[in-house]
Amino acid sequence: MVSVSDAQAIILDLVQPLDLQRDTEVVDLLAADSRILAVPVTSPLDFPHWDNSAMDGYAVRYEDVQHSSAEQPAVLEIVEDIPAGYQPKSRIQSGEAARIFTGAVIPAGADTVVMQERTRREENRVFILAAPQPQEFVRHKASFYQAGTQLLPAGIKLNASEIAVLAAAQCPQLNVYRRPRVAIFSTGDELVTVDQPLQPGQIVDSNQYALAALVKESGAEPILLGIVKDDPVTLERVIAHAVAIADIVLSSGGVSVGDYDYVDKIIESLRAKIHIRSVEMRPGKPLTVATFPSTDAINRVSPHSALYFGLPGNPAAVLVTFWRFVLPAIKKLSGITEGWEPVFLKVRSHDELRSDGKRETYLWGKLHLINGVYEFHKAGGSHSSGNLINLAQTNALAVLPMGKTSIYPQEEVQVLQLSNG
Ligand SMILES: Nc1nc2c(c(=O)[nH]1)N[C@H]1C(S)=C(S)[C@@H](COP(=O)(O)OP(=O)(O)OC[C@H]3O[C@@H](n4cnc5c(N)ncnc54)[C@H](O)[C@@H]3O)O[C@H]1N2
Ligand code: MOO
Ligand SMILES: [Mg+2]
């Protein structure tokens, strides 16, 4: 049995990120949100593209207005109107001003904008009622970004702010990493699909649905291979197919010590190397992590081999092991250059939290904001790993380290924050 932190290190070390040559695709900007940028973006445009006004007002020469006041205003002749989107025609001479609007190009000769509220207009003349700062309200060309330098680095997730930057930089299409392919199947003679009537002893294969949703939320592509009977021949065929088509394979069930738990034996017969068989955690103890022969010499997963997770069958164990181990692996595989590891917060616990202290224990619940401070509320009902009913609405897992048997109400606890919260 390995500790949770060793298991995380082993798993992340096995993951080789998608390949820059083979694993990228071009997508339209509007379809690029949540994708991972594969190639750095450089723009030939400066930002701002030209000196422009930050206010509606008057473009002036600072030297003309530096001593202006309400009592002794400078009086300037307005020689041009410059709305946003137009090129100024005149050069501002001493004693002159241009009427200008937010975003409009500063005319030659002017170096400062006086905002409208600090002026008074009389026909074709403007009275400057207060001295501005030199260059006030001028947004200088290239002061936000200089053409030719790196605008966005590779390996970042494209969210709304990056999409806006790329639009402004006129990048209608982008090179992104393809979505990681994650094959999913469930094992067990007792399992039926969601639409089949239940016979005695049967249950619905909820794990397949849970994993499909989790994989989709992670930005990867789920490939659903259905329910596989506890039959070694069928299992071997499905596993061999799964590892051939996917980057990551997730099976659930069949990894414990029961007579019908075949997964480890079959992946060994397929010459997989098993790196982890069980982890000191609850739920999630029987967890198999393996790689297949196409791995390279130092046993990293190459872009064309699969990392295999044999997740335990119990529904709570599936979710917890996905959040704790599979999600970081998908993130590293996806091409994101940092932030793969799970995020833990220190928060106050609202409830008493208990463990037998023998394994690192994960209790599910919800983070609530109380006066701006997060508080963990444990889900009511049974925390058996066979109970998935009270997992609904979970947005955090409280973690009791090995050896810790209780955390009292109002005591500090570490929680794993889940992105679906
Ligand atoms: N003698 C021991 N027995 C068990 C141990 C152990 O250490 N010694 N570990 C227990 C723990 S902890 C877990 S977790 C489970 C893991 O079992 P398996 O991975 O072999 O899973 P199964 O036996 O196939 O199923 C366990 C449980 O989960 C239900 N299940 C399975 N698949 C699904 C699915 N797709 N959707 C919903 N529910 C599913 C299944 O019906 C069983 O109730 O082993 C313990 N036993
Ligand atoms: O560790 Mo098991 O995963 O308790 O249910
Ligand atoms: Mg079993």
Q: Could you describe the 3D structure shown?
A:
The strands form eight sheets. A six-stranded mixed sheet has the order 7-4-6-5-9-8. Strands 16-13-17-21-20-18 form a six-stranded mixed sheet, with helices on both faces. It has a five-stranded mixed beta barrel with strand order 22-25-24-26-28. The protein is elongated. The model has no long low-confidence stretch (mean pLDDT 95). The chain starts with a helix and ends with a strand. It contains seven helices and 28 strands. It is an alpha/beta fold. The protein has four domains: 174 residues, Molybdenum Cofactor Biosythetic Enzyme, Chain A, CATH 3.40.980.10; 57 residues, Molybdopterin biosynthesis moea protein, domain 2 (Alpha-Beta Complex), CATH 3.90.105.10; 88 residues, Molybdopterin biosynthesis moea protein, domain 3 (Molybdopterin biosynthesis moeA protein, domain 3); 74 residues, Beta Barrel (Beta-clip).
* Mean pLDDT over the full residue set: 95
Relative strand content: 25-35%
What distance lies between the first and last C-alpha atoms, to the nearest angstrom? 31 Å
Q: Give the strand order of the largest sheet, numbering strands 1, 2, ... along the chain.
A: 7-4-6-5-9-8
Stretches with pLDDT under 50, minimum 5 residues: none
Short summary:
This is Molybdopterin molybdenumtransferase. With 421 residues, the protein is α/β, with parallel strands linked by helices.
Present the secondary structure layout:
Layout: H1 4-14, E1 24-28, E2 41-42, E3 52-53, E4 57-60, H2 62-65, E5 74-82, E6 96-100, E7 112-115, E8 119-122, E9 125-128, E10 138-139, E11 150-152, H3 160-168, E12 173-177, E13 181-187, E14 191-192, E15 203-204, H4 206-217, E16 221-228, H5 232-245, E17 248-252, H6 263-269, E18 273-278, E19 281-282, E20 286-291, E21 307-311, H7 315-333, E22 344-349, E23 353-354, E24 360-370, E25 373-378, E26 396-400, E27 406-407, E28 412-417
Parallel strand pairs: 5-6, 13-16, 13-17, 14-15, 17-21, 19-24, 22-25
Antiparallel strand pairs: 1-12, 2-11, 3-10, 4-6, 4-7, 5-9, 8-9, 18-20, 20-21, 22-28, 23-27, 24-25, 24-26, 26-28
Helix pairs in contact: 1-7, 4-7
Bound molecules: ligand LQZAQKY5, molybdate ion and magnesium ion.
Ligand LQZAQKY5 binds near residues 186, 188, 285 and 286.
Pathway: Cofactor biosynthesis; molybdopterin biosynthesis
GO biological process, one term: Mo-molybdopterin cofactor biosynthetic process
EC number: 2.10.1.1
